[in-house]
Write a structure and sequence with these properties.
The protein has 142 residues and is mainly α. It contains five helices and two strands; from the N terminus they run ααβααβα.
Length: 142
Amino acid sequence: MMCKVLIFGCISVAMLMTTAYGASLSSAKRKPLQTLIKDLEILENIKNIHLELYTPTETQECTQQTLQCYLGEVVTLKKETEDDTEIKEEFVTAIQNIDKNLKSLTGLNHTGSECKVCEANNKKKFPDFLHELTNFVRYLQK
């Protein structure tokens, strides 16, 4: 009987730790994160994007909501840059890849019940948005 209680206790602790800190990522989920970092680094060289985009602040508590918000804003960025002749093709391709890889990550973690909708976040200029998105992707890699 004591063994059953001990085993049950260990399983409960493991489940709580997984819920609190997230399950480790499979290699299928790690690859898009690595690719995202590379594409985000390419975008650091864009100088002529003058958009303000909603930038989530509750990244750790609301991972799924944050991911959805960034995805929506990347779609906006993609629409704004696809027909802009001043934007290099390399940047347009990087934005398309970021969009694709963020979509592949949806469903990664749960959304907290107290999470804000995307439009409740402050808008930030593109360089600040890019910096925050890069930090969020690095957070997901851990």
